[in-house]
Design brief:
Elements: H1 7-19, H2 21-48, E1 51-54, E2 57-61, H3 65-72, H4 74-94, H5 96-107, H6 112-120, H7 127-137, H8 145-152, H9 167-192, H10 196-204, H11 209-237, H12 241-246, H13 258-267, H14 272-300
Helix pairs in contact: 3-14, 4-9, 4-11, 5-9, 6-9, 7-9, 9-11, 10-11, 11-14, 13-14
C-alpha cells in the first residue's frame, strides 16, 4: 500500500532550506571555486591519464599504458624512494623542535609575544624566497655563507647541496626552519589548554620536570601530536618547490620527488600523459594516508 509523504516533514525541509538560504548563498562562491579549480581539474586529469595527448588534447584511449610507462621508468623508483626519504628525514629533523619550542615558550613569562612572532615569521615567507635564501647559505666553495663561517674557524669548506648524501637532509633543514612556527603555534595552543591543577597535583606527589612532562604534558598533547604526524607525512610527501628551487632535483636526481618529476614530465619533457599518470599515483598514495588522518582526527580530535 502506497503512503503519502509526510507534509509536515516536507514543509520543515523546505523551511530549513529557506531559513539557511543566506548561508547557502555565502557558501556558493567557495563551492564554485572549488569545483572549477580543484575538483574539476582532478577529475579531468584522472580521465586524461588513460589517453594519449597531443597539445593537452586527448587523441587515443590507451588504458593503463601511461601508468605502465611511468612505473617502468627507471626514475620512478628513485623518485618514490626520495619522497619517502623526505618524509623520514622530516621526522628525524623537524618533528621534535616544534614540540620543544612550544614547551619552552609556554614557560616563558617575559617577551613571550616577540619570541612567538620571531619563530612564526619564516612561515609567512614565500617558499621560493626561503629556498633561495638557504640556497645562498649552502653555496659550495668560498662564496657560500656557511663555508665562510667554517673558514673563520679554520674548518674546510663543505659541498653542501652538491653532496648527494646531504641534499635531502639539508632541504629538510630549510623546510623545518620555515614550517616550524606553524606547528609550534598548534602545540602551544594545546599546552595552554591543560588544566594547571594536574601539574600542581603532580608536584605534590613529588614529580620533577621530566616526570611532569611524561605524565601530564605528553598525554594531554598526544592527540595533536598524532594529527601533526599524519599531516606531516601528507605535506612533506608532496614536496616540489623546495628541491626545484634549490637543486632542480640534483645532483644526479638525488633530490627529485614525485611531484617534481611530474612537473618535469609536463613542462620539460612535454609528456603530459606521464605527468597525469604519476599525479594520479601520487594522489592515490596520499588518499590512503589521508584516510588514516581522518580516522585519527575522528578518534582524537575532540
Amino acid at each position: 500500500m502506497k503512503t503519502k509523504p509526510n507534509k509536515s516533514l516536507k514543509k520543515s525541509g523546505i523551511g530549513l532550506i529557506r531559513r539557511n538560504s543566506t548561508a547557502w548563498l555565502l557558501l556558493l562562491p567557495s563551492v564554485l571555486l572549488f569545483f572549477f579549480f580543484v575538483w574539476r581539474p582532478i577529475g579531468i586529469g584522472f580521465l586524461y591519464s588513460f589517453f594519449k595527448l597531443q597539445n593537452y588534447v586527448p587523441t587515443e584511449f590507451v588504458g593503463f599504458e601511461n601508468y605502465r610507462e611511468v612505473v617502468t621508468d627507471m626514475l620512478f623508483l628513485k623518485t618514490l624512494t626520495n619522497s619517502c626519504k623526505y618524509v623520514l628525514w622530516s621526522f628525524v629533523i623537524g618533528f621534535i623542535p616544534p614540540i620543544l619550542l612550544a614547551v619552552m615558550i609556554n614557560e616563558i613569562v617575559h617577551m613571550n609575544s616577540f619570541i612567538k612572532f620571531s619563530i612564526y615569521f619564516p612561515q609567512i615567507v614565500p617558499v621560493v624566497a626561503a629556498a633561495l635564501i638557504w640556497y645562498f647559505l649552502y653555496l659550495p666553495g668560498d662564496s657560500g655563507v656557511l663555508n665562510i663561517i667554517l673558514g673563520k674557524f679554520g674548518l674546510p669548506a663543505n659541498d653542501w647541496l652538491q653532496n648527494s648524501k646531504q641534499t635531502i637532509p639539508l632541504i629538510i633543514v630549510m623546510m623545518t626552519w620555515q614550517g616550524c612556527g606553524g606547528s609550534m603555534i598548534l602545540y602551544l595552543a594545546s599546552l595552554q589548554g591543560i588544566n594547571q591543577e594536574l601539574y600542581e597535583a603532580a608536584k605534590m606527589d613529588g614529580a620533577g620536570v621530566p616526570m611532569r612532562f611524561m605524565c601530564v604534558t605528553l598525554p594531554a598533547i598526544f592527540p595533536i601530536i598524532l594529527l601533526q604526524f599524519v599531516r606531516q607525512i601528507i605535506g612533506v610527501f608532496q614536496v616540489m618547490l623546495e628541491p626545484m628551487s634549490m637543486t632542480d632535483g640534483g645532483p644526479n636526481n638525488a633530490s627529485v620527488s614525485l611531484n617534481l618529476q611530474s612537473f618535469k614530465y609536463a613542462f620539460q619533457n612535454f609528456q603530459p600523459e606521464r605527468a597525469l599518470a604519476l599525479g594520479v599515483i601520487t594522489f592515490i598514495i596520499l588518499m590512503i594516508v589521508t584516510c588514516f588522518y581522518f580516522k585519527a582526527q575522528k578518534k582524537f580530535g575532540d
